[in-house]
Amino acid sequence: MIKRNLAKFNQTMGFQISHSNKQKVKPFSGPKNGDNDGTNGSVIGRLLSPPDVTAGYASWLVKHPSALNSFGSIVKQAKGKKVVVFLDYDGTLSPIVEDPDKAFMSAEMRAAVSEVAKYFPTSIISGRSRDKVKEFVQLNNVYYAGSHGLDIMAPSRALKSCDKKGNEGAFQPAKFFLPAIQEISIELEDKIREIQGARIEDNRFCISVHYRQVPPQDHEILKEKVKSLVENRPDFRLTEGKMVGYIFQKFVS
Fold first, then answer.
1. Integer distance in angstroms from the first to the last C-alpha of the chain?
2. Residues 19, 235: Cα–Cα separation, whole Å
3. What are 178-207's pLDDT values in tens digits?
4. What is the per-residue pLDDT for 54?
5. Nearest 10 degrees: CA dihedral of 131, 132, 137, 139?
6. CA-CA distance, 151 to 146, in Å (whole number)?
7. Partners of residue 237 on adjacent β-strands
């Protein structure tokens, strides 16, 4: 059964990749705009090496081999085990875009993820708010983990952590920090309002500071302003993604 289901996964994701050239997703052409992992945010870059592999991408593949190209090995390792699928959203299920509100998922990708979720528990994990990710994905048969796992919701058929009234039992360990997060968000808005292109995204349990549209000469200025805000708050930490900074609680690893 597991082998058959994994084969179905391979077929589904392989189909998505083979058709991705029809989408407006650029193939890898070297790191740019801060995307230093060399995938340029495309599904092709994440899962399947393009024909014109650059030295940087080849080096990246050594540590991050293609799952689909190593499928035989995965099937052997999965024998007798329960397989679950974890997917990022931005740059994996959708391309990296200038405007984070326009990181739309294609209909083909949505169909592929829905099909995979029929065979394996499938979770979509993102630094974005859980509601925002669900709004993009529009599927009811997957798990959603927003704010880097600080806000998790299971599909209704698998939901076990619900209260006595049957309400949604989302896992939200950072509720205590919500007032502090809101305070940081307000202060941050004031600190960066004069930096052109800087944008704050409220993810409820964490804050994203986007700087993809900020002029390069202002990147360090923005980072220092954000860093200074977090330094005096021992319960919070600052990490970086692709042209974005995240502020959240320190107990998140």
1. 35
2. 45
3. 888 888 889 989 989 899 999 888 888 888
4. 65
5. 10
6. 5
7. 248
Report pLDDT for 111: 94
Q: With 60 as the cut, is the pLDDT of residue 77 above it?
A: yes
User: Which distant-in-sequence residues (6+ apart) come within 8 Å of 220 by Cβ?
Assistant: none
- Residues forming a β-bridge with 210: 199, 244
How far is 210 from 207, CA to CA, in rounded Å? 10
**Would you state the structure tokens that stand for residue 122, as one six-digit string?**
């499938």
Q: Which residue do the tokens 């989408």 mark?
A: 23
Confidence of residue 71 (pLDDT cuts 50, 70, 90): confident
**What is the pLDDT of the chain when averaged over all its residues?**
76
